[in-house]
Queue: 2 jobs
Job 1
Amino acid sequence: VVLLLEVGHVPLADANHHVVVSTDMARLDQQALLQGASRHAHRIELLNLAQDPLGQLHRHLGLFRQLLDTRSWVALDVDTDGRVLAGHDDLGSLQLVEIDRDGTTTPLTRLPSKCRGRYVRGRRQVVVEHDQGGDENFHVFSVGLDGGDAVDLTPFSGVLASPIALEDERPDEMLVALNERDRRYFDVHRLSFLTGALQLDTENPGDVSEWAADRELRVRAAVRARADGGYSVIVRDTPQDAWRPLCELAVEDGSPTIGGFTPDGGALYVTHSGAANAKRLLRYDLATGSATEIA
């Protein structure tokens, strides 16, 4: 486990003493880390596991035990009544917990592997994505907050499932990507919470690696892999319209990531490194195609 660690931070009893553990120190700006710590009278130790990992483990056994025993929380969603859906790894893998407004916690899942989830608006229900014991065969489950068991909403053997969109404006359904038709490609399916039925919404032509939908659960953006190794972000105004390119990226720019539509559906957030030496977040006006750098 330790040898797979990329970057870890161990809080020690002395609040001014920090240890950064990494297998790839080249990814860290070590000078900036040390200078920043010095300015605030903090002390930082850098442990590079790429160099003599077994020796480092032996010399700092107590430290690594503390690192592996450190538990974490992550906030995932908030419902309309102010309850927080959170993830907690007290059981060894990230499981879902609900935190009420008074601070009381209620465990929601005890699944064989880590999971993530979101509330379904208007229902005491959570949609959960997880695999079976780390096999990366992810399915989408429904967990009732009345104490019911998790129900597999995508019960297809050998098929991967991934949530695409779950919006307050359409509380009775969500969009899910499935490779049921062809294991190589992920099509978009519409999942009904009322009936459990799955209906094909948008078929993958064979070159789409990412889909995005607006707040009305209409698939209106995608990332397309081109034959030359580059990528295109494509959009359309309605599901009945033809796709058109929004931006084109070269091979060296890598794959872009769609951040989502603006609430009115008139603009799209995209992260990519085109025409720059680092990834940037841009807001594309879908009417004009113009881009505004956000960060």
Job 2
Amino acid sequence: NPRCRPINAGLAPDTQFFLLTTNRGVCSSRDTVRLVVMPLPAISFNKYLINICEGASASLINSVSGGKTPYRWRWSPATGLSDTVLPIPLANPKSDIRYTLRVTDGFGCVKSDTVRVAVNPRPVAAFQWPITCAGRPVVVSDSSRIQRDSITSRLWSSPGFDTFGLKVINFRMNGRSSVPLTLMVYTNKGCGDTLTRVVDVKAIPKLAFNIPYVCNGDSSRFANQTTLDSGFITGWSWDFGDGKSTTIRNPVYRYADTGARTVMLSAKSNNGCADTVRKISRVYPVPNAKFGFS
């Protein structure tokens, strides 16, 4: 009882004949065995390596030909598959994996093939900026992260502003105190992430003070009228223009003699934002009243 493994590399059934001869002494007998070899079904994948991003799905597109319909599909392993018997299931694996497709045709002939799904990490979009005072451009730096691969493209966008490719941007607020800014980053495998944050600048003290005009020998009372839209003032500095100074908020000062002097007031906020304003203070001479009589 011999065994054989016939081969049919074509697409149609192949009939093969085997001659059986038996001998007993001088007598012999012959017979012919007719063997029909059915072709195996052929499997072809649209892609044998499918790249997806973390959290994404991909269709395991394939086509089957040859053999005899109907076909039956069986996928393994079941990890991340939407179904194991659908012709084209959805794959959503958490890590790299190789799927095996086993197709059985109407003759019961079986063919298998494999497809690999590579799961690529997504970047984590992030950006930061230092404390910036109003009126100055904000230096925004991309601090996005990626486990492997590399970030190859960046897109910054905000109302009235778009730029591409830069890792560091000088973002102008155009008189606004806060503006939403969006960063989109993509890797060399096409995986991306998006982050929107509100970029803000810190208020600068709005300096003002009331400058008195006084007579020689009188004290000048300086009324500090400074305001700050947000935060608080951490320090004051007065320069009276004659080499003397103080850090009192509302100082009272007496000049030694008459004349005009430039008084300078500086203030600094808790965010480090500072400004200075100057005004002219005048001390007038006292009239020398005289009278006579005759």
